[in-house]
Design brief:
Layout (H helix, E strand, L loop, with lengths): L4 E7 L2 E8 L5 E5 H7 L1 E5 L5 E5 L3 H34 L4 H27 L26 H22 L7 H31 L11 H22 L12 H23 L4
Antiparallel strand pairs: 1-2, 2-3, 3-4, 4-5
Length: 280
């Protein structure tokens, strides 16, 4: 405690990495994502060697494991159900309500994953000045912290899952005109995709410590963000292809819409599997 802060990195006004001189020698490095996901700090020693070690107490590490298990499991299940719904829509001969029901069930898991991701931010151990152990606060179900990049990214993600819920509920409506379908079903779909893309960009800024995306192939957190962002891009492609032409009442391209949803959903499932290993 009390050692002067050496340097701060981040994107714009957001701080995602801090450096302190360690009394034992070397430099203590706090990074936002590893600290909140794995409860670790890193020490950069002579020769620029970097070592990491758990820096939170047992209660905090157990909390991080439980939250990560729920979030990763929810995204695996949600992505799997979305992929199944898209496969039924593409290859099945069942009523459209069947695929809509599968999508809706998957959407509930996405809601759970989005909110649990926000809880991971709210209840993660925080850094202390001077490079000491990470400090764990009391449990919180909600807090408003827009100047934290990780909070902003997960909050936008959660809002995106809620907007998708509107789209999924409206998809059960029958007898809609093309204009009504575009307004009630397609528009929330596109808005949700935009929010997912924004959340992914903010997540890239957190792991890259800058506004522009980067490649960090040795970072598991980077791979989680990259795979999920690919899924968001594919969801957007699917949404654009699902626009209903008012003149004909048909989609722009139903094959692209279904395959985009299926492949994007599988990306989120893969991201969930990878996230299961991003734990203390």
């Amino acid at each position: 405690m009390g050692q002067p802060e050496q340097r701060a990195d981040g994107a714009g006004p957001f701080t995602t990495r801090l450096f302190w001189d360690s009394p034992e020698g070397g430099t203590v490095v706090w990074e936002s994502r590893p600290a909140r996901r794995r409860g670790v700090l890193a020490v950069r020693g002579p020769g620029d060697t970097l070592t990491t070690s758990p820096s939170a107490d047992a209660e905090a590490l157990g909390r991080l494991r439980r939250l990560n298990a729920v979030a990763s499991g929810a995204f695996v299940a949600g992505g799997g159900l979305f992929a199944l719904g898209a496969a039924v829509a593409q290859f099945g001969s069942a009523d459209a309500v069947v695929s809509a029901s599968i999508f809706f069930a998957g959407g509930l898991f996405f809601n759970l994953g989005g909110y649990t991701s926000l809880l991971q931010v709210l209840n993660a151990p925080r850094h202390t000045q001077g490079g000491g152990r990470l400090v764990t606060g009391g449990w919180r179900w909600w807090a408003y912290e827009p100047m934290r990049l990780d909070w902003l990214s997960t909050f936008v993600l959660f809002v995106g899952t809620l907007v998708f819920a509107v789209n999924l509920l409206d998809s059960f409506l029958q007898g809609l005109s093309a204009q009504q379908v575009n307004r009630l079903v397609w528009t929330p779909d596109v808005v949700g995709c935009v929010l997912f893309l924004v959340s992914g960009h903010l997540a890239f800024a957190e792991v890259c410590h800058r506004s522009r995306p980067c490649v960090r192939s040795r970072s598991l957190g980077w791979w989680v963000v990259a795979v999920n962002q690919l899924g968001s891009v594919l969801f957007m492609v699917s949404a654009l292809a699902a626009f209903t032409r008012p003149a004909t009442g048909s989609l722009v391209n139903s094959d692209i819409a279904n395959w985009g949803t299926l492949s994007g959903a599988l990306c989120f499932s893969v991201g969930g599997v990878l996230q299961a290993f991003e734990r203390p």
